[in-house]
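Running log. JK asked me to keep both predictions on one page so they can be read side by side. First protein, sequence followed by its tokens:
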Amino acid sequence: MERTWNNKAWFMVLPVLLLVAFSAIIPLMTVVNYSVQDTFGNNVFFWAGSEWFEEILHSDRFWEAMARNLAFSAIILIIEIPLGIFIALNMPKKGWGVPVCLVLMALPLLIPWNVVGTIWQVFGRVDIGLLGYTLRALGFNYNYVNDPFDAWITVIVMDVWHWTSLVVLLCYAGLVSIPDAYYQAAKIDGASRWAIFRYIQLPKMNRVLLIAVLLRFMDSFMIYTEPFVVTGGGPGNTTTFLSIDLVKLAIGEFNLGEAAAMSIVYFLIIMLLSWVFYTVMTAYDAEQ
């Protein structure tokens, strides 16, 4: 039987799509305009063509910040996805513990990004912060202001604390949607805990895991506020990610043309990597 499509629903969402497109296109066109021109202020512009793009793509500064971004995103995904799955598997599915766990998981997500950065900035200080003071008292030479390794550890732990809850809630939603009949059949067959996870729970979580990976990758790759508040991109440039470097270039150095070109390249890289993630994971899901 030939399937028929009802396109009337598009008319319901068309005004919203047009509004979003309009609000996104105007800033984007402004950035594109700046990326092919140069200015010395007073609203006077000079044509630069592709000069800024060539300078960005041949800049060691850009590629070093890119490498830091990719490393950070990879570490975040390696930690948060398995940890989120583990926590979701061990959360209660019935009873009074369900709302308690859901509220506790949602609390970090409700805190604004700049407040998260401020919390961890104070928390990690060696003079008044509980974490920094405790680690120093235990004999660890911890100082995220001066030590690059400590700065990275602090930023990673901060992001894990802030965003693992998102993965947990998505995985939990996938788990509670599994009918009890699957578990009953597995119990009758004498399936092990690992077999239940491998053949029942994990396949049912594939789609929510795809969303979790895409969201966490895009968020971690675009991270700005939290590390900027905690470390300011330091010590040195060790936590200067692309977003922080972009702001320094545009506001600190007032190099609007190069910053605009960098933001476009940044945007295209995020789009490309997100498309690769989506294509690979949907292809894997189709094979299951």
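And the second, directly underneath as requested:
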Amino acid sequence: MYLHLGQDTVVRTDEIVGIFDLDTSTVSKRTREFLTKAEKAGRVVNVSMELPKSFVLCAKQGQKEPHTLYISQISSATLLKRTGFIEEISLK
């Protein structure tokens, strides 16, 4: 299954490590450091020119690094609903 992140960008749901809200997650110093390091390493893809609301961390299956970080204008709650993960959890 695929998740549409905005514009012309889609990622495979099995490559998603996490979906994060930019407002709440960037309060942490460690998260800000992680985002800065990813940007310096060229692993950040901005999929929108609008105000960013979330970021999605992805990794190829079987690989720990390098991760790709997608910045999206779509809220983390909306992205989570699009994945169908919530429905899977509620059915169990």
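Observation for JK regarding the second prediction: The first strand starts at residue 2 and ends at 6.
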